[in-house]
Specification:
heterodimer; A: Coagulation Factor XIII, Chain A, domain 1; 7-stranded mixed sheet; 6-stranded mixed sheet
Chain lengths: ~425, ~260
């Protein structure tokens, strides 16, 4: 098995902030004269000789033809890795070795000029990737077709929408005969249809034996594209290995942190008229233990404390599970007789039990509201309520395939019959 | 399959040339698109300056022009001057202007300032066209020494490339370079024999003028183009040596530092 990318004890340091100017020098020496500490000044201005260790002693190898996902928090060093591999920047120490052409999609269409037409920009952009005119001539139709911009190809790109801009940028990069493609969160732009095609194109590249490095916060996409994941943290490799396993560990850690940060906090995104307000919201398991992470099929107990400033007749409590990307997954309301007293006033607690949630592993938020009997006017709406996550542990999600796409899982079974349509 | 290497992929010469041409075209189009007068502005700048110089230096200041019509005399030097000055002015800022692609993709960095110079070559060609018309108007022919014009243009381009490479690279690290360059260029015009011939410079200042590589270029170009006579070889020799040294020095400086551009821009 040949190696496409090899990093050997790579470290990268940056000087933080802007470099010192004469004004800084004068100001800090004046401060010194007056006996003030210069660090106060530098902290305020966010500068002066602070060093950022973007990467510390990173070593790894990527075999040719692999899809490697790179995950981690912002500032973990993911983009620096890609910049080193694409030679945009150089390591402070260590070796970065690459076999073949590495094309980086850190920003789509970075080399385009808005005054030039799409056609001219294709030549300009592909030229930045090292292609000659004859190369581009040969690929031109394919580039235009993939980006679906034939109609506007002779229009200056300043008239393009940002999605179209990105599409042409992606298409040019894809057609520049790369051996290695470096993708950094760029698929966030563009519409859903294009995102799908872009993912498909990347997958085909891997099938053709090309190497793809994919940075994304979307674990779903990372796992669909990549068999291996590299988890970066504070400029170091925190873990690497099979995609399913690493993504799982990462998600549960991120979730635990996110949840501990805002377990009972209600976001300030409040609506409603305010006669009744939620005071706190907690999530529990069926056995009553507070929790933020659930497995598919678990029962979730939502316990919300409220305070009614005035007496309110026949209120309705609503609890909805919301997927951040797609919207409401399921919505519930306390409309059955006996759910809620006819009149509430003062403090109280409402519980909603979501039985055996059929949700796929993902992060969700709760949206809670209190409305009038007709569910028309709201007393209180917490639009981005507490988060919780469904984790895939023990459910065999390592083999994520297309048929497992979506938010909910239901039992299903296929049966095959021979012969004509029945 | 290519083997592992810690060096950047070498761009083929054809791809390098085409990228340079494409960026040059992008520069030209960006500068003159949606402008009614278009590339005419490339001619307007030396032409207007020629008019002012003729009024101030020739009419008011009685500046000698060694027997040639003063407007022609001044214009022949203003065209190369503005090529140099505009190239260096925009070249110095070019890596900053192009920070978007410098920090996002790898390609040979020197192409960015070179494209600025390439785009100014088009201006130079347009302005030279007007020079031909002026020659016809003043009935000044081109003698056999005119064959040396390309040599001086080459020296001009080499010097411009050298200066622009150095200032663009330094400007990435210290933004003070740009204002120094912009002010310096304004003064440099008057310290170069553009509005006046080198022959009026008193002997005690002559050495200072000879240390300016543009002196040899402008004087030489004017000798073969306007006066149709042999250039002063000593002056040309000194300038050529300086230009060669500056070019090599700037190239080394640029290639030594270009690894760090993306980090500090």
């Amino acid at each position: 098995m040949s190696i496409a990318i090899q990093l050997e004890n790579v470290s990268k340091r940056y000087r933080a902030g802007r470099s010192r100017t004469v004004v800084d020098l004068v100001a800090s020496s004046l401060n010194d004269l007056r006996g003030k500490s210069a660090t106060v000044h530098s902290a305020n201005r966010g500068t002066v000789d602070a060093t950022i260790h973007a990467l510390r002693d990173v070593s790894f190898e990527v075999p040719t033809g692999a899809g490697l996902g790179i995950i981690g928090r912002n500032g973990a060093g993911k983009t620096t890795l890609l910049k080193l591999i694409s030679r945009v920047t150089w390591p402070t120490s260590g070796k970065v070795r690459v076999a073949g052409r590495a094309v980086s999609l850190i920003e789509l269409g970075a080399g385009f000029h808005p005054e030039l037409t799409g056609r001219e920009n294709v030549y300009l952009g592909a030229g930045l990737f090292g292609l000659t005119r004859t190369d581009i001539d040969r690929q031109f139709d394919a580039i235009v077709e993939f980006a679906d911009v034939a109609r506007l190809i002779d229009t200056p790109m300043k008239r393009y929408s940002s999605g179209l801009y990105a599409r042409l940028g992606f298409s040019v990069a894809m057609h520049s005969r790369p051996d290695i493609v470096l993708v950094d969160e760029v698929l966030a732009v563009g519409d859903a249809a294009f995102r799908r095609r872009a993912m498909e194109a990347l997958r085909q590249l891997i099938e053709q034996g090309k190497t793809v490095l994919f940075i994304s916060h979307d674990m779903w996409n990372v796992r669909r594209l990549c068999s291996q994941i590299l988890w970066m943290e504070d400029g170091r490799v925190r873990a690497s290995g099979p995609a399913g396993e690493i993504a799982e560990r990462y998600m549960s850690e991120v979730n635990v942190e996110a949840l501990s940060a805002n377990a009972t906090a209600l976001q300030s995104h409040r609506g409603g008229t305010g006669e009744v307000r939620f005071a706190s919201v907690e999530l529990h398991r069926a056995d009553g233990a507070a929790a933020g992470i659930f497995a598919p099929g678990d029962t979730v107990l939502v316990r919300a404390a409220y305070r009614a400033g005035v007496s309110v007749e026949r209120p309705v409590f609503q609890v909805a599970v919301v997927d951040v990307d797609t919207g409401i997954v399921v919505s519930t309301a306390s409309t059955a007789a006996g759910d809620v007293p006819a009149v509430i006033q003062g403090d109280g607690v409402i519980e909603c039990r979501l039985e055996r949630i059929p949700l796929r592993p993902r992060q969700y938020v709760l949206r809670l509201s209190i409305t009038d009997p007709f569910q028309l006017a709201s007393y209180d709406v917490v639009t981005a309520g507490p988060r919780f996550a469904v984790s895939g542990q023990g459910t065999g999600v390592d083999s994520l395939a297309d048929e497992q796409d979506g938010l909910v899982s239901i039992p299903f079974q296929f049966t095959h019959h021979d012969g004509d349509r029945a | 399959m290519a083997s592992l290497t810690d060096q950047p992929e070498r761009m083929s010469l054809a791809a390098y040339w085409e990228l340079l041409m494409n960026l040059t075209r992008r520069e030209i189009k960006g500068r003159y698109s949606q402008s009614f007068f278009g590339a005419g502005w490339a001619v307007a700048q030396p032409l207007a300056t020629m008019g002012v110089f003729t009024l101030v230096f020739a009419r008011l200041g009685q500046m000698p022009s060694d027997g040639a019509p003063y407007p022609l005399f001044a214009y022949a030097a203003l065209v190369p001057w503005f090529f140099f000055s505009n190239s260096v002015a925009s070249g110095t800022m070019s890596l900053i202007t192009y920070r978007n692609i410098v920090t996002k993709t790898y390609f040979p960095r020197e192409i960015v300032p070179l494209a600025q110079i390439g785009s100014r070559l088009v201006d130079l060609a347009a302005a030279s066209g007007l020079y031909v018309l002026l020659m016809i108007y003043y009935r000044v022919g081109l003698g056999p020494w005119g064959a040396l014009v390309p040599v001086f243009l080459l020296l001009l381009v080499l010097f411009t490339v050298g200066v622009a490479l150095a200032t663009s690279a330094m400007n990435v690290f210290y933004r003070d370079v740009n204002p120094v360059v912009q002010i310096g260029l304004q003064l440099w015009l008057y310290l170069t024999p553009v509005a006046y011939p080198l022959s009026v410079v008193p002997d005690q200042y002559r050495l200072f003028f000879l240390l300016n590589p543009l002196t040899g270029v402008v004087e030489g170009l004017r000798a073969v183009l306007v006066f149709g006579r042999e250039p002063e070889w000593a002056v040309v020799g000194i300038s050529s040596a300086l230009i060669a040294a500056i070019f090599v020095g700037a190239l080394v400086l640029f290639k030594r530092t270009d690894k760090y551009f993306a980090d500090v821009i």
